[in-house]
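Annex B. Sample input.
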Amino acid sequence: MIEVEGLTKFYGPHPAISDVTFTVDEGEIVGFLGPNGAGKTTAMRVITGYMPPTTGTVRVAGHDMVDDSLEGRRNIGYMPEKVALYTDMRVVEYLGYAGRLQGMKREAIGERTEFCLERCGLQERRNDIIGRLSMGYRQRVGLAQAMLHNPKVLILDEPTVGLDPNQIIEVRNLIKGLAKDHTVMLSTHILPEAQMTCERVIIINHGKIVAVDTPEQLTSQIRQSETLLVRVDTKDSNVVQQLLDLPKVTGVRPAEGTGGYYVDAMVGTDIRAALAAFVLQKGWGLLELRVVEMSLEDVFRQLTTEEEV
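Annex B, continued. Sample output.
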């Protein structure tokens, strides 16, 4: 649904993005991640037809965003980070206005407005003045505007920025429900948000793609060891060295703030049973033993740090 190939954009002599290539399939929710200045905003502006590329191609729903830009943009619903809302208009008036700007027929505007109000949980706010809405509801209005003309692709830039935890959960669930009818690409710097919402993530750094995969696969590829957290009740001062002597253990270090230890083992091995038996054999009290999962934040930090070195 979105095809990006060899995309490069120069600002003067400096490339903001360089040879960016990826695809987003129909019905997917894909996260576009990167540190500040990595090239996310530039890439999204080119994909949406806001600016042309220096070199490379972008196709949305089969339409080239340079040669057939108008038709391509008809298939895109775009929600920028700072949603351009007319705060003195009522919600239903604003959506009607947005529909007219899209060139929609009057009957279609009415039908789609009602659909989007319901889908975005705005029925009870339809006659409210936008300027009096909370940030969460304003984000909903922005999302309703983006999907009003029923585009095949939704591109959302930081859709949960500035929201409180409850509002984030509501908008997250709303976005996940949109994949039934739309392909969704969202930019975010909130890594747990991407992990909870997206099926795949694209990580960009210094204008280049450094990873494209599911959060689970990225974690599996980068993880260099299996890590357990173990907490024991003992006055033994030589716990670290004794744990290091266990077969398949590659490292042991204190787990700050927990009173326990991180025990690293060879990838693909499960030493929980052996570790528990060892603790009991030593006469230590076993207070906790659990697997430590690598998060998308860990993956992101490792990829972007390595790229900077």
